[in-house]
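Query structure, 86 tokens:
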């Protein structure tokens, strides 16, 4: 019974703990959409060196939100944005 409980915990920690910080996401996103505000971020998929992050954002009050996906890759001890799908 203990083994079954630990497997989901280990899986969750292994998948969800990688990727850039929220501060880095905000900074990088501001460079590509300077007049927009992040509403929500979600890690879609990834491994120890790559992660796709979906960003939900809005550009002005009262407008519907938009979504985009960023690819981050871990290179030279840091996460770097390598692809932007708008």
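Result returned for the query:
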């Amino acid at each position: 019974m203990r083994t079954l409980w630990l497997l989901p915990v280990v899986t969750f920690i292994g998948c969800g703990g990688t990727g850039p910080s929220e501060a880095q996401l905000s900074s990088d996103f501001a460079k590509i959409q300077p007049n927009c505000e992040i509403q929500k971020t979600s890690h879609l998929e990834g491994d120890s060196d790559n992660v796709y992050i979906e960003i939900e954002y809005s550009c002005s009050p009262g407008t519907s939100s938009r979504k985009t996906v960023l690819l981050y890759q871990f290179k030279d001890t840091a996460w770097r944005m390598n692809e932007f799908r708008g």
